[in-house]
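Action item from last meeting closed. Structure (280 res):
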């Protein structure tokens, strides 16, 4: 938690950084209990750091740089899937690329992406079968769905999501749900527009909390969730929040993530560094 918070303070002076550490230590010492989830701690941490620094988008430069690296790779991603003629094989290839894109997360405790090796990492990831793999069932569910809600995760990952979303367009109406404003390195409407996904898809910002925390999402997002036949949710933040809402998720949510920290690895029962395609 402190590691990621200090990433938000790289441009601040020493006294500001010390104040952030002091105030966060106080926050954690009081609230680091079983009653507070990691996402709730992160939400309060982010608010506190923003209040002290006055910076509401501290990872903007990193998001821009990583988005550009992903966008430069986009032609090769398209080339990879465009050579596949079989519908099911193509869909699963698009799913694999969207899954591989989840490696682009900065600040996870046990994970450090290397933009200089992004192409090698992505194509290495898609060659390995997910540790939990329900891709075949996902394909069948997608073909039966009229409305799909796509919940995004990290900003540069949207480039990989574009591959899958445009494949989903063949089968269903797709609505995209990024965050309402910059939070950490997560995607907002800005990245959706940069990827060219705003013209043909309804965009429904979901709020300012990591993952899907129903107590803090927008009313419009709740309506979209309830009306969707299927939800595709990206990343560990979605997993960590949605497990608390079994009635809202049961047999409705496709979880796509790369396991990037040991606590999630233990909880979801998949090795660190592996990928997961799971219907909740």
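Sequence:
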């Amino acid at each position: 938690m402190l590691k990621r918070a200090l990433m938000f303070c790289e441009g601040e002076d020493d006294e500001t950084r010390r104040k952030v550490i002091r105030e966060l230590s106080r926050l954690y010492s009081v609230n680091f209990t079983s009653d507070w989830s990691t996402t709730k701690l992160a939400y309060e941490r982010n608010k506190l750091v923003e209040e002290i620094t006055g910076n509401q988008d501290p990872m903007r430069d990193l998001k821009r740089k990583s988005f550009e690296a992903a966008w430069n790779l986009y032609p090769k991603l398209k080339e990879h899937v465009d050579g596949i003629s079989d519908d099911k094989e193509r869909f699963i290839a698009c799913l694999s690329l969207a899954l591989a894109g989840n490696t682009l997360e900065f600040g996870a405790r046990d994970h450090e992406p290397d933009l200089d090796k992004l192409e090698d990492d992505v194509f290495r990831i898609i060659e390995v079968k997910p540790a939990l793999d329900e891709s075949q069932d996902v394909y069948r569910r997608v073909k039966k769905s009229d409305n799909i809600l796509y919940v995004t995760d990290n900003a540069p990952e949207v480039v990989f999501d574009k591959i899958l979303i445009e494949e989903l367009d063949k089968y269903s109406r797709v609505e995209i749900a990024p965050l309402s404003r910059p939070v950490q390195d997560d995607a907002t409407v800005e990245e959706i527009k940069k990827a060219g996904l705003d013209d043909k898809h309804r965009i429904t910002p979901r709020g300012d909390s990591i993952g899907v925390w129903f107590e803090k999402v927008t009313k419009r997002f709740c309506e979209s969730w309830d009306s969707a036949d299927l939800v595709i949710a990206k990343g560990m933040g979605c997993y960590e929040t949605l497990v608390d809402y079994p009635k809202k998720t049961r047999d409705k949510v496709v979880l796509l993530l790369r396991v990037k920290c040991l606590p999630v690895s233990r909880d979801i029962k998949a090795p660190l560094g592996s990928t997961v395609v799971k219907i909740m």
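Note appended to the action item: The chain has 13 helices and seven strands.
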